């Protein structure tokens, strides 16, 4: 039962990020801030607890610090041989991928585990299934976002208050699926 509720809750966050990444080729700044706030608040709260009372051990705490590293990376002086900042870009991309694929699902899982201690009772097999469901939903969200013209029109984006993706379906054409 916990697998179902956990998968639903974690997948909702993953869908939103994945769809927008697919549609707009970017993770919006407010989502990046939400990832950072959730991981940092959980990390700081765990660090303030006595070590034997913290629900997260040091590998998890290290993992939850990665979004902060990603945040401060632009302020770290790099002495690249070239002036292109290639090392900074590679590190930023790598950390971004780790944050998106590993830290976000782990942070959400830990927040749910702290709220409901029974979730921690999930077997390793169920945790792997939870991660798999989350990643599958993320991939589907990215695909639907990238191919939004099959499901939505520019009007759908406009009426929801979003910007228009470059590949949205212009008026006069019909998407495969109509939501209004």
List SSEs in N-to-C order. HHHHHH
Strand content: under 5%
Structural domain tally: 1
Q: How far apart are the termini?
A: 34 Å
Query: How many beta-strand segments?
Result: 0
Largest sheet features: none
Helix content: 55-70%
Provide the low-confidence segments as ranges: none
Average pLDDT for all residues:
81
Overall morphology: globular
Structural class: mainly alpha
- Please give the count of helices: 6
Rg from alpha-carbon coordinates? 19 Å
Keywords: Membrane, Transmembrane, Transmembrane helix
Structural notes for this entry:
There is one protein chain. This protein has one domain. It has about 180 residues and is mainly α. The protein starts with a helix and ends in a 21-residue tail after the last helix.
Secondary-structure map with pairings?
Elements: H1 2-24, H2 29-48, H3 58-72, H4 86-115, H5 124-146, H6 154-159
Helix pairs in contact: 1-4, 1-5, 2-3, 2-4, 3-4
């Amino acid at each position: 039962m916990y697998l179902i509720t956990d998968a639903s809750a974690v997948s909702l966050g993953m869908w939103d990020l994945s769809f927008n990444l697919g549609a707009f080729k970017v993770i919006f700044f407010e989502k990046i801030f939400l990832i950072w706030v959730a991981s940092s608040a959980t990390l700081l709260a765990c660090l303030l607890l006595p070590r034997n009372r913290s629900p997260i051990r040091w590998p998890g705490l290290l993992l939850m610090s990665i979004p902060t590293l990603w945040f401060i990376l632009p302020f770290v002086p790099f002495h690249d041989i070239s002036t292109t900042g290639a090392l900074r870009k590679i590190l930023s991309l790598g950390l971004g991928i780790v944050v998106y694929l590993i830290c976000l699902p782990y942070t959400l899982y830990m927040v749910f585990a702290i709220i409901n201690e029974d979730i921690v009772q999930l077997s390793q097999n169920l945790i792997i299934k939870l991660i798999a469901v989350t990643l599958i939903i993320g991939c589907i969200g990215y695909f639907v976002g990238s191919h939004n013209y099959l499901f939505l029109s520019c009007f759908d984006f406009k009426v929801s208050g979003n910007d228009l993706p470059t590949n949205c379906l212009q008026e006069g054409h019909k998407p495969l699926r109509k939501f209004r």
